C-alpha cells in the first residue's frame, strides 16, 4: 500500500497523509522546497513508523514532470494512490492588473495539475489500477467577482477531472475531485471568514482519506458545502451579479 503526495508542504496534504500512514501505507512526499521536504518525510517516518521517501518536484517545471514521476516509481513501482494538493490563491486585485499574477494562478491551479495528471493517468491506465485525488475548490462551482481568477482555474480543473474520470473508468482507475470550503491554513490567514464554516486541515484530511479509500468521485468537505453550493448555483444570474460576493 502506498501514497504519493504532490505538494507536501500543504497542511491538508499532511493531514491526509497521516491517515494513510496510520493505516500502514508507504508515502512519497514531493515538493519544491528540498529542506522542507526532508523535514516532513523524516517527521512522518519517526511519528508513524512507516517508510517515507522524498522527491523534488516543481509544479511549474512542466518539462521536469515526467522525470519526477519516474523518480517516484523507482522508489515504489506499485504505486496505488496519488494525492495532488498544490495550488495558489493569489489575489484577485493583483491578477486583474498584472497578468503575471493571473498566469501564476492559472498555472499552479490548472496547467501544472493537468501536466502531472496526464503522466500519472497514463501510468495507471497501462496498469489498469490506481487512484488519483486532486484538490479543487468550491470556488470553482460559480464565478464570483471577488475571486473569479482563482475560481475559473479551479472550475476548469473540476471539468478536466470529470473528463479524466470518465476516460479512466473503463481501466479501473478512480479519479476523485475534492472540493473544500474554507480551511484553516496559511492560504486563508488574515482573511475575514465566518468561523462556523472554517474547517481544520485534520477534518479535511480525514474526509479525503475516506473518499480515496472508498473510490468516491466527488467530495465536498466538510459535507455541508454541497448544500451551500447547491443554493449558490441556483441563484439566477440577474440576481447573483448584484450580490457582493
Explain the overall architecture.
A 7-stranded parallel beta sheet has the order 3-2-1-4-5-6-7, sandwiched between helices. The chain has one domain (2-240): NAD(P)-binding Rossmann-like Domain (Rossmann fold, 3-Layer(aba) Sandwich). The chain has helices spanning 11-22, 34-48, 65-75, 92-97, 99-127, 148-169, 201-213, 225-234, 237-240, and strands at residues 2-6, 26-31, 52-56, 81-84, 130-135, 173-180, 218-221. The mean pLDDT is 94. With 245 residues, it is an alpha/beta fold. It is built from 9 helices and 7 strands, in the order βαβαβαβααβαβαβαα. 50% of the residues lie in helices and 16% in strands. Helix 1 crosses helix 7 and helix 5 (99-127) packs parallel to helix 6.
Tag the structure with descriptive keywords.
single chain, 245 residues, alpha/beta, Rossmann fold, 7-stranded parallel β-sheet, 16% strand, globular
